[in-house]
Amino acid sequence: MNEHDKFQQEVLENITSLSNDADLQALSRIWIREIAPHKWSYNFSWLGRPAIQFPNDAWALQEIVWKVKPDLIIETGIAHGGSLMISASLLALLDYTDAVESGQVLDPKSSRRKVIGIDIDIREHNRDAIERHPLAHKIQMFQGSSIDPETIKKVKEAAKGYQRVLVCLDSNHTYEHVLSELNAYAPLVSSGSYCIVYDTIIEDMPAQLFDNRPWCPGNSPKTAVYEFIQQHPEFVIDKQIDAKLQISVAPDGFLKRR
Description:
The protein is α/β, with parallel strands linked by helices. The chain has one domain: Rossmann fold. The protein contains 9 helices and 9 strands. Helix 4 (82-102) links the parallel strand 3 (72-76) and strand 4 (114-119). Helix 1 crosses helix 9 (239-245) and helix 3 (55-68) packs parallel to helix 4 (82-102). The model has no long low-confidence stretch (mean pLDDT 97).
């Protein structure tokens, strides 16, 4: 076994140890519960755009993108556009590595890799900032409900011809909405890639944290994930990601297609 393989074996042992540490997992949930009133996830940006995400989850996405090498990422929920910039920049890095490996000069706008973003209300100041961003050429946006048949039709049309597709769901977090999104967009995920369902952590938090929201424990993305998984054995929850991250808004939300 070479040194790289030894290191990877150590990492796997670390993750297994984390997965068996119930006390640490409980502590992680307590930390997330206590940080929630401070809106901790609102305090970060990516390449100049606010990204309402936990840094751990952004790192996990990076690892998935490097492994899967998608040519299309579909995201529901745009907000300020930070998540779009995360995905667009990761796809741009794939373009760069392709150019280096092939010895070709990189033409940033020649690649077909892109991000599709969907939101029921793309506010004008956010749209303007996204469209003026240097990575705008890698982003296509659709305004409308992500579960509206017309929106789904437009996205599926835009997704034609792409071979490796990754999906990220992060809009309305009710059970009914997320399950509808899963049924609409998860079939586009390619084998070996992922459908990431964010904010499954709602199910593990106190109900009073969501007094002003339509979602709550029992009516959350995680309940939709469990229902979807029962009906779609081609998807499996990647528990290794959960164990590795510990601090995440998406426990049981990293769905890998077999």
